[in-house]
Amino acid sequence: MILTGSFHASRMDSSTKELKTAQSKQPYVESDDPKDCGFEDRHVHFGPAGTAFWEEPPSDASLPEIVSHPHQQTIHPGMVDPHSFSRFHCPCQSTQCQISYPDYLLESQSTQYHPLTGAMSVPSDNSHPSTVLTPWFSNEPILCSIIGGDLHTPVAGISAPQLIEQVQVQEELTEVTSHTSQPVVCNVSGGGHVLVVNPCEPGPVFFTLESAPAQTDDGLTKGKDVNVLGIPTQAACVLYESGDQITSMYPNASSGRGAGMMCESKSRKPCHCTRSLCLKLYCECFANGVMCSNCDCSNCHNNAEHEVKRHKAIKSCLGRNPDAFRPKIAGRKSGEVKGWHNKGCNCKRSGCLKNYCECYEANIMCTSSCKCVGCRNYDDSSEMGFRGRTDKDTLSVSVITPAVLEAVYGCLLAQAEQAEREAQSPAQAEQMVLHEFGHCLTQIVKAMFKHNT
DNA sequence: GAGTTTGAAACT
DNA sequence: CAGTTTCAAACTC
User: Fold this and answer.
1) pLDDT score of A277
2) What keywords tag this UniProt record (predicted)?
3) What are phi and psi of A74, to 5 degrees?
């Protein structure tokens, strides 16, 4: 299914009416405050090539919503990678708006959720119809389809539009998405609809598409032509193809630990676990969401033969820490050395200049999120004579990250563009940009102050 | 390759 | 939540 033209986004409420875009606000934005991203009033449009863009820029770009959201943020397939995916959902670079989505075992007790094309861990005999496994480590929205004919629920056998009106389905979807902070994109068989279940929202968002998905004789919805959110399904299917040997679906995906490892190739390093059964986060394979393959581990349980234990281990990890499988490095764009550690390191003796340090290992600088002692992992060029300062002072400097600078640039550019649209005089345009710059600086100073207190 | 160091994860 | 233990990777010799 190629998305052409625009489509309407609507919430799946009892009325099933098309909702205005205000109700489809930031469908994937993970943020405590939905206002963080300023996307409340955006219309989402998909272009001819499966591209999408946000319409109507926010009137006010500010920090720490530090990034303005240049209007018509165009999303193309290349942007939707493990690192830039957040840009699609929210161009905001603010740490408050940084988005990464820990995956979770997609599972339902009563409804089948199928990866669109994948066969990962799905028994061929469908002996466990209630449990379909998908990688829990993905940054991507979970792609699944709801096959009406196979539903073992009271809603089986009804058309897709009717189906989605069923509260039960909504509850099931809500149940599914309650375990994940990432979007679940559900292809509703036969209806030409796609449910986009936003974990931030109480119910799924219902996108009405112009073309229906291809459907096979057995009722399975094929996504061979589906291009959802700019992700060609042919590529997306790779994501679900295998749990242990996931081929990169994005050429530029880096191989840093945590971030984007779901895209790693077969060249990933083998683990050497001996005591953890490869079912704890000590195991890098497990932590990265892949089954062990060609590893040097002993008594490995991180494989298909121990699926039940593996399943329990995943749940256990997520129970301890819902973000356990969340990429550790956020804000990283593919092919670029930038980003920040979500949690920050705690190094004490390495000076954060050895690979013991997760920040250093990921080739990123330490930030104020880190609790490291004697950190030397910061940009000398940005020290500007700060040598001799305390670590805490260095942390202040680290507030101004490349991402923040890029965000400021975005704000200023947005203002300039707005001035141009409004046919403002050069002087007025300059004033608008300067005013925005001042606003950005204020927010940066506030952020520094916050980090130092 | 064996032993040591290191810091994240897990545990108490 | 802080302190301790466990663990596996990084590092050194």
Assistant:
1) 94
2) Nucleus
3) -85, 130
Q: Are residues A203 and A311 in the same domain?
A: no
- Kindly report the bases of strand C lying within 7 A of a protein C-beta atom: 6-11
| Cβ of A319 less than 7 A from strand B | no
In a domain? residue A438: no
pLDDT at A338: 66
What is the predicted pLDDT for the residue at A369? 85
Note whether A32 and A164 are same-domain residues. yes
Residues of chain A with pLDDT under 50: 1-266, 383-396
Domain enclosing residue A210, as ranges? 8-239
Q: Is the CB of A318 under 7 A from strand B?
A: no
Q: In angstroms, how far is C12 C1' from A350 CA?
A: 14
A224 CB closer than 7 A to any strand B atom: no
A151 part of a folded domain: yes
In a domain, A295, yes or no: yes
pLDDT for position A13: 35
Residues lying close to strand C (Cβ under 7 A), chosen from 276-295 of chain A, are: 276, 278, 280, 282-284
Positive or negative torsion for Cα A148, A149, A150, A154: positive
pLDDT given at position A444:
74
Query: Do A162 and A293 sit in the same domain of this protein?
Result: no
**Angle, alpha carbons A18-A197-A411 (nearest 5°):** 85
Count: domains in chain A: 2
Residue A300 pLDDT: 93
